Amino acid sequence: MITAANRLRKHADYQRVYKASRKRFGKQMSYFFLLRQPELLRENSTLRQPDACARIGLTVSRAMGNAVQRNRIKRRMREAVRREIGTLQLPVDVVLHPGRRVAEVEFSLLERDIAHIFHAIQREAAEQLRGPGVHATRGSA
Q: CA–CA separation, 7 vs 95, rounded Å?
């Protein structure tokens, strides 16, 4: 189970993520993410405050099937997220939209896709936190 601190609960939180972000794509799902309060994080280096954890929201539309099928998708997604949530070290809000294949795909592939998405989010959020004009270089001389 994903802890209460790691879940998006309010409709307003989902809407804030949708408005401030753009749609991105993984292999089995699309996702949105938003870094929370970057200006406060630059000043305060301690990131282990309760408000500094990643929060995840899931949306499964009715087009995905009946209630039984949608609940099965959500259970599988929550378990994969629970296993990979440690990847997200910055305070980001993430909304995941699973595709139809999530219901039938092998769980290890679903978990790998979520891990890949979380790594991409962590990398991009870290770049946003550094600010514009600051780029990390590979293999500095």
A: 10
Q: For the chain, give every domain's residue range.
A: 4-130
pTM of the model: 0.81
Q: For residues 64 and 101, what is the distance between their CA atoms, to the nearest angstrom?
A: 10
**pLDDT tens digits along 55-100:** 999 999 999 999 999 999 999 999 999 999 999 999 999 999 999 8
Neighbour order of strands in the sheet with 55-58: 24-25, 29-35, 92-98, 55-58
DSSP string, the chain: ---GGGB---HHHHHHHHHHS--EE-SSEEEEEEE--HHHHHH-----SGGGS-EEEE---GGG-SHHHHHHHHHHHHHHHHHHGGG--S-EEEEEEE-GGGGTS-HHHHHHHHHHHHHHHHHHHHHHHH-TT----SS--
CATH of segment(s) 4-130:
3.30.230.10
